[in-house]
């Protein structure tokens, strides 16, 4: 009997330990940092497919999207600190409900437009200057096996896929890389966007391969993002792998471990 009681007590202690660990992990994920894996190439070359990072949940305060399964018991935001232009932000896509990561380009009250591939904010052209090329292998990338878009297309499997890199400087002085393929098409020649109060305008750094605020939600884009949908700021890459699996250690990108995000 004593042996059975000890086994029962041991089982209960194991269950309690697991429950406590899950509670602690949930609190940590809700209040402090949320893991995020980069699934697409929309933020190249700032972020690459296979980069793993922790999202700073404290940066902008909290909303119902801060909790797993949207279970935070409040509406709006609490402890809200407005994001800054140029921040790399994870947010809940108001169209399809997925978590996206893009760069914050437009603040409430701004006007934005793309003309011949150049960005205009509040009627002024945003400065950019050529900064070499971004070269990658034309091959399936990451677990989804997606192929990159190339400025020098068409290219064969295993060939060099090239995009021109520019350094863009936003009105508040934030400078970051962008990649371009063309200056044609809707994404590069848009109407004027007027960012409403309480909403934000996001774009991918890989300008010709990004579903972002330039596209309305009803055509698969993001549109304007309400403040309540902001989840947190991406500050630093923790780990990175170019392979189809995390366990392919020979594809790990050691030079990107703990790299700051700008």
From TrEMBL:
EC annotation from Swiss-Prot or TrEMBL: 3.4.21.89
Pfam families found in the cross-reference section: Peptidase_S26 (PF10502)
Highest taxon, organism lineage: Bacteria
CDD domains in alphabetical order: S26_SPase_I (cd06530)
Catalytic activity: Cleavage of hydrophobic, N-terminal signal or leader sequences from secreted and periplasmic proteins
Peptidase S26 domain boundaries: 12-238
Bilayer topology annotation: Single-pass type II membrane protein
InterPro entries reported in the protein's UniProt record: LexA/Signal_pep-like_sf, Pept_S26A_signal_pept_1, Pept_S26A_signal_pept_1_CS, Pept_S26A_signal_pept_1_Lys-AS, Peptidase_S26
Location within or outside the cell: Membrane
Keyword tags: Hydrolase, Membrane, Protease, Transmembrane, Transmembrane helix
Entry-linked SUPFAM superfamilies: LexA/Signal peptidase
PANTHER family in UniProt: CHLOROPLAST PROCESSING PEPTIDASE, SIGNAL PEPTIDASE I
NCBIfam families, per the entry: sigpep_I_bact
Protein family membership: Belongs to the peptidase S26 family.
Name this polypeptide is given: Signal peptidase I
Species this chain originates from: Allgaiera indica
